[in-house]
Design a protein that fits this description.
ten-stranded antiparallel β-sheet, 10 helices, about 375 residues, alpha+beta, Glucose Permease (Domain IIA)
């Protein structure tokens, strides 16, 4: 009779070595692609080894061991169907947000390049891209052949200029954006806003009717961000410092005091005395005080060479050198300096030169007379 105990004992060390080798290879994986992978904790492997030692000590349990191995093989073959990441990370229907959150919690996944990236595939998939030193959103979009709008939307990027090295971002294989529906939304209004067809939205999200409850997460294939959404992520979106009556525009105008033609370097918005004035964009206060014809004035310096000027204030609520957020209260409407009545004189300068504020994203007029 064959001594099974001695046979398996002689083979055990080799088996244990192979298991440990497989364990190391599993932890070296850095990308979830079409091949299925199972990440097994080391304690599980140790437990398997100990159990194996006990089993081989009793030849009558060899059949049980073989059956267990067969069962494990079956489970392994179907593991991809139960993993939250399979075949390049498929996102099902309108569960994009949930899939993203679950995927971002899996630290073992990710990678710099992907041979599974296929823009011709109609099935929405995505992979992780690890940002390298010196890369920007623009260079990444060019390198991977996907629009910046798509990268901004899928990763909820609020500031495209603060990408961190080694951070993993989600890259889909299809151009488009993610949209979370609001209470008043319909498929028709969403399609019109983002210039896509209703049928494409339905097909991409497996929708059978036009009912989209508030908070529904949709993938809009082929869509781009609105001008305001893009400008916000890229740092070019301004907020209106005040709402009121538009009384004077930018450029050549007749001087209200002399009647002679003059160059108006900003716009004037009339509002009740003491109305709140807010920072149009985040930045550093470089001046807060009295400045000639501007009266009480605040000047804020922003990124990309921009400065905003707020003149004729009745009160200044920030100090020189302070950092202010977009929309933060900085002063009150007044009529100080060279002024004909309560209003805000608002300027935008780019690299020191005045530019027409109403042409910048977020600062356009509401109507002919109102701002």
């Amino acid at each position: 009779m064959t001594d099974y105990k001695n046979v398996f004992k002689s083979k055990y060390k080799k088996l244990e070595k192979e298991i440990n080798k497989s364990f190391r290879l599993i932890y070296q994986l850095d990308f979830s692609g079409k091949k299925r992978h199972i990440v097994i904790d080391k304690t599980v492997i140790d437990r398997i080894c100990k159990t194996f030692k006990k089993l081989i000590a009793n030849p009558t349990q060899i059949i049980i061991l073989i059956s267990a191995l067969v069962l494990f093989t079956i489970i392994y073959s179907f593991a991809g169907y139960y993993s939250p990441v399979k075949e390049g990370s498929f996102i099902g229907k309108a569960k994009i947000k949930e899939e993203q959150e679950s995927m971002l919690n899996i630290n073992a996944m990710g990678g710099n390049e992907s041979k599974y990236f296929d823009t011709n595939n109609s099935e929405l998939k995505f992979f992780f891209y690890k940002i390298k030193q010196g890369e920007s959103l623009y260079t990444i979009s060019k390198k991977l052949g996907v629009s910046m709008d798509t990268l901004i939307s899928f990763n909820s990027i609020e500031n495209a200029h603060t990408l961190n090295q080694d951070k993993r971002i989600i890259v889909p294989n299809i151009q488009g954006i993610i949209y979370s529906t609001k209470k008043e939304d319909t498929l028709e209004s969403i399609a019109q806003k983002y210039k896509v067809s209703v049928e494409d939205i339905k097909d991409a999200n497996d929708l059978t009717d036009g009912d989209v409850p508030e908070g529904t997460v949709l993938f809009l294939p082929g869509a781009s961000l609105t001008e305001a959404e893009r400008a916000k992520a890229l740092g070019y979106l301004f907020f209106k410092p005040i709402y009121g009556r538009f009384t004077s525009g930018f450029g050549i105008r007749r001087d209200p005091f002399t009647g002679d033609p003059g160059y108006h370097t900003g716009i004037d918005i009339s509002a009740p005395y003491g109305s709140p004035v807010k920072a149009s964009k985040e930045g550093r206060v470089v001046f807060a005080g009295w400045q000639g014809g501007y009266g009480k004035c605040v000047v804020i310096k922003h990124l990309f060479g921009f400065e905003t000027v707020y003149g004729h204030l009745s009160r200044i609520l920030v100090s020189n050198g302070s950092w202010v957020k977009q929309g933060e209260l900085i002063g009150r409407v007044g009529s100080t300096g060279r002024s004909t009545g309560p209003h805000l004189h608002f300027e935008v300068r780019k690299f020191g030169r005045p530019t027409n504020p109403v042409r910048l994203t977020g600062l356009g007029k509401r109507s002919r007379y109102w701002y």
